[in-house]
Specification:
This protein has helices at 37-43, 51-64, 78-89, 107-116, 133-140, 144-163, 184-198, 219-232, 252-261, 283-291, 304-315, 336-348, 383-394, 400-417, 423-434, 476-488, 532-556; strands at residues 32-35, 68-72, 98-104, 122-130, 169-177, 206-212, 239-245, 266-269, 442-450, 454-462, 465-473, 492-502, 509-518, 521-529. With 557 residues, the chain is α/β, with parallel strands linked by helices. The protein folds into 3 domains: 21-315, Alpha-Beta Barrel (TIM Barrel), CATH 3.20.20.70; 336-434, no CATH class; 442-556, Alpha-isopropylmalate synthase LeuA, regulatory domain (Double Stranded RNA Binding Domain). The protein has an 8-stranded parallel β-barrel, surrounded by 8 helices. The protein has a 3-stranded antiparallel beta sheet with strand order 9-10-11. Strands 12-13-14 form a 3-stranded antiparallel beta sheet, sandwiched between helices. A hairpin with a 2-residue loop joins strand 13 and strand 14 (521-529). Helix 6 runs parallel beside helix 7, helix 8 (219-232) runs parallel beside helix 9 and helix 16 packs parallel to helix 17. The protein is elongated and about 105 Å long. The protein starts with 31 loop residues before the first strand and ends with a helix. It binds 3-methyl-2-oxobutanoic acid and zinc ion (ZN). 3-methyl-2-oxobutanoic acid is lined by residues 40, 102, 128, 175, 177, 209, 211, 213, 244, 246. One of its GO terms (molecular function) is 2-isopropylmalate synthase activity. Its cofactor is Mg(2+). Its main location: cytoplasm. It is found in: Cytoplasm.
Length: 557
């Protein structure tokens, strides 16, 4: 039991639809997109955009490829009016772009709206009135007929003004605002009446925009409303059915997607979802969802950082780090198993194969992100992330046995440090732990002779002078290990050895990784040198130095 009184609320009353077909439909092509960033998005801002910000945002929307852009509510805002005038007078609207403006269905506002649009080449006049039961009864205190009359008068007024300016290519748009809270049959009745006034044709369609002004039900209920509407409205073939969803229940994108399957043609929304309350439908997410299914969204979203930067600069709202496709962390895996899987899949991925990488629904490069951002290392990370970072940044291809040794060291550091371990600190940890071939002893001159057995003569430099050691074995490394063992009175067994050429940051350098058991304890040593044999003996020296230091510490303690 919760302390909430759930009886305070009623369940949404679904439309009675039989044999719905939308669940079997697929989205196979991009809808007509309309951006409402500069109107609905702008109306929801604590600080509405300045003209300068609107100009910057408009340029972005054009570059992204919107052909229909709602630029404001000019009858309600002088700033919006001025912005529309600037667009027209300064010839800022590309020939293939419709500017769209919103007006309430009130004659004086419609008149002012047309004033703002004088001289426009192409314009969508978007007229709306609220049709929901709640608004009819409590806000307008009108019956259904009164509400329908507002819509019809608004439609007539829109048509009359347009006729006075034949130089503009007009498109009419009507929204029964709060459509989701309106009995669907009544919404149809109002739209039919508006259509009777406008008399669109299949060649000259009107836009009928069905808003989920407030998202009040699960997306399937919205899809039912859309399919029912499309089936029962008159002259369906003379209208473009548009959807305008908000995100009150967090399903604005899902509702638009299902609505599209239910018969809609056009989608209104904002870039990254700014809008009233929880926001408008996020066009970036919906378009990228299509893209990730192999459908061309017909919007250029590849420069995600520019999109984010303009949206943030104009709305003064931050993009959440986990925002789908755009957030700073959405191509980052922290968990070790995810990192391992991503690393393996990325290694298999080639440009001629469809994208198939675990945990990454799209290729981060498509939105201007890089693989480096895919993997970060924190206390939750496993060896995959550590190995990936060292390889990407420094060309160190750690053998698996060394990954196993090193990743707990990084995790421990992350736990103490409380955050993400960047590549530089990781390299520092690696060097201080394994590249210990210079203290207390450092390899000086050495000579390697090959005969039946390999013989190594080496000088070891230390603070207390130079020591000469000699050993034999099967190969330089084993000869050197014997020499070290004899001199220091230790048993030195090499358990693992690996080497490779370094490709990052150094020409013709090689790296050697050695794991040795010294008197029953395992040590790992690493060294880089232009000569691979020299690198390998230095790596072994590193393990012996660790043992000597361990003994010294034990004696001191
Ligand atoms: O959310 C809404 O209903 C609107 C309309 C004006 C279309 O923004
Ligand atoms: Zn809206």
């Amino acid at each position: 039991m919760t302390s909430f009184d759930h009886t305070k609320y009623r369940a949404f009353e679904p439309v009675a639809i039989e044999n719905r077909t939308w669940p079997d439909q697929e989205i196979t092509s991009a809808p007509i997109w309309s951006s409402v960033d500069l109107r609905d998005g702008n109306q929801a801002l604590v600080e509405p955009m300045t003209v300068e910000q609107k100009k910057q945002f408009f340029a972005l929307l054009v570059d992204v490829g919107f052909k229909e852009i709602e630029v404001g509510f000019p009858a309600a805002s002088q700033l919006d009016f001025d912005f529309v005038r600037w667009l027209i007078e300064e010839n800022q609207v590309p020939d293939d772009v419709y500017i769209q403006v919103l007006t309430q269905a009130r004659p004086e506002l419609i008149e002012r709206t047309y004033e703002s649009l004088k001289g426009a080449k192409k314009a969508i006049v978007h007229v709306y009135n609220s049709t929901s039961k709640t608004q009819r009864e409590q806000v307008f205190r009108l019956g259904k007929d009164g509400i329908k009359e507002i819509a019809v008068k608004g439609a007539q007024c829109v048509k009359e003004h347009a006729a006075k300016h034949p130089e503009t290519e007009w498109v009419f748009q009507y929204s029964p605002e709060s459509f989701t809270g309106t009995e669907t049959d009544f919404a149809i009745e109002v739209v039919d009446a508006v259509i009777d006034v406008w008399q669109p044709t299949p060649d000259n369609k009107a836009i009928i925009n069905l808003p989920a002004t407030v998202e009040v039900a699960t997306p399937n209920r919205f899809a039912d409303q859309i399919e029912y509407f499309c089936r029962n409205v008159k002259q369906r073939d003379s209208m473009i059915i548009s959807l305008h969803t908000h995100n009150d229940r967090g399903c604005g994108v899902a509702a638009a997607e299902l609505g599209l399957m239910a018969g809609a043609d056009r989608i209104e929304g904002t870039l990254l979802g700014n809008g009233e309350r929880t926001g408008n439908m996020d066009v970036v997410t919906m378009a990228m969802n299509m893209y990730s299914q192999g459908i061309d969204p017909e919007l250029a979203l590849g420069d995600m950082d520019r999109i984010i930067s303009v949206v943030q600069a104009c709305t003064l709202l931050q993009v959440h780090p986990r925002h789908p496709y755009a957030g700073e962390l959405v191509f980052t895996a922290f968990s070790g198993s995810h990192q391992d899987a991503i690393k393996k899949c990325l290694a298999n991925q080639t440009d001629d194969k469809p994208w198939d990488v675990a945990y990454l629904p799209i290729d981060p490069r498509d939105v201007g992100r890089s693989y480096q951002e895919v993997i970060r290392v924190n206390s939750q990370s496993g060896k995959g992330g550590v190995a990936y970072t060292l390889e990407q940044e420094y060309g160190l291809a750690l053998p698996r046995w060394l990954q196993v040794e090193f990743s707990p060291i990084v995790q421990q550091f992350a736990e103490q440090d409380g955050g993400v371990v960047n590549a530089e600190s990781m390299k520092g940890l690696f060097e201080s732990r394994f590249m210990t071939g210079d203290k207390p002893y450092q390899l000086g001159k050495y000579d390697h002779a090959k005969d039946d057995v390999d013989t190594v003569h080496a000088e070891l430099n230390s603070d207390s002078g130079v020591i000469n050691i000699t050993g034999t074995g099967n190969g330089a490394l084993s000869a050197f290990s014997e020499a070290l063992g004899k001199h220091f009175g230790m048993r030195v067994d090499i358990i693992q050895y690996q080497e490779h050429a370094l490709t990052v940051g150094s020409d013709s350098q090689a790296i050697a990784y050695v794991q040795a058991n010294i008197d029953g304890d395992r040590f790992n040593g690493v060294a880089i040198d232009s000569d691979i044999v020299s690198a390998s003996v230095q790596a072994l020296m590193a393990t012996v130095n660790q043992k000597i230091l361990q003994n010294t510490d034990a004696n001191v303690a």
